[in-house]
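Hi everyone, sorry if this is the wrong subforum. Our group has a chain we'd like a structural model of before ordering constructs, and none of us has done structure prediction before. Sequence below.
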Amino acid sequence: MAIIKALLNVIGRSDVLTGVSYPELFLFLPSIVIMLIFYSRHGRSTPLFRAAGSILFGLYWLFIAQEILLGRDPDIINGVISALGGFLFLFIAFQLYLDHRFEENTRSIEWLLRMSALTGAFYFITEHVPAFQGGMIFIVAHLTYFVLRLFGFEVFLQSGFPSRIGEGLMITSPDPTDTMIMIVFECTAALALFLFTAAIIATETDRDEWMPWARKELLRTKGDPSLLVRSRRWGLLNMIRLSDGERKIRAFLMVVPLIFVVNIFRNVGVILAVHGDLLDFYTAHSIIAKVLSLLMMMFLTWVLFENLPELQENMVGLFDLRKRFKKGMIKKGRIDLKYV
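Answer:
Right subforum, don't worry. Here is the predicted structure as tokens:
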């Protein structure tokens, strides 16, 4: 009891845990801890532990979805995505039970859980450690301000460093009637940065999965003068030439810095649209900017597929799991093609 009381006292005094909600404490954190502990297999019961983590993770996102959709300022896009994520992880928990029952190992599920664990851990630390959160806000706010001034727009940036959780930096215009826009943690694209980074790290490379297809594709398109086909062949040749580690590094450098840069211009676009009276803040930020961001994420996912075909196999494999109904359908970690 003394140990528990001491731990609670530490938690109570911790600035890091100040912003931790009950759903995070009882659903999100336990799920991340379980998925990290069972990042690699530890015996036959591993799928059952992973299923428990997946259930907690799914319930967390369902709780977040209802908060977003039924809150004071409903966000349809984020709410629907959160709800779909919640149901996905409950489905994955069932598939993990099948993994245990059939004594199989589904690589797509392993990839998803590893990616989720890494993303969740990175994001939680950044969101709840004031120095990390404040640092990201500080950098993004100043770069947004710099781009606005570079293009000749007169704006002002609040001075100082956001040293507390939930704080931000305000960007204003000389016109007092213009809406003041605050750059907060959600404006840093931290989730997208961590998600794509984790997706790359969690991908297990296996050249045997795609090498036969790549060689057939090169043979089929040999001599085609089309610029599009020649570009495709160049990409395939590069993929074959590079080592697995080099392919991961290349994918990271092609995608993650671009997310950061595009997000700066997203912030700039929202500010200009609102200050220029072209759109109200809700329409600019919560509808148009989010839709464009989703389209950008889809494009960047395609870029990852071009560099890491194994990642594409992982994502397609998740959709194929809906056809799984008996033992023996999983071969070498993938659902057998005769069932697809």
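For your construct planning: The chain has twelve helices and five strands. The beta strands are 156-157, 169-172, 181-183, 330-331, 334-335.
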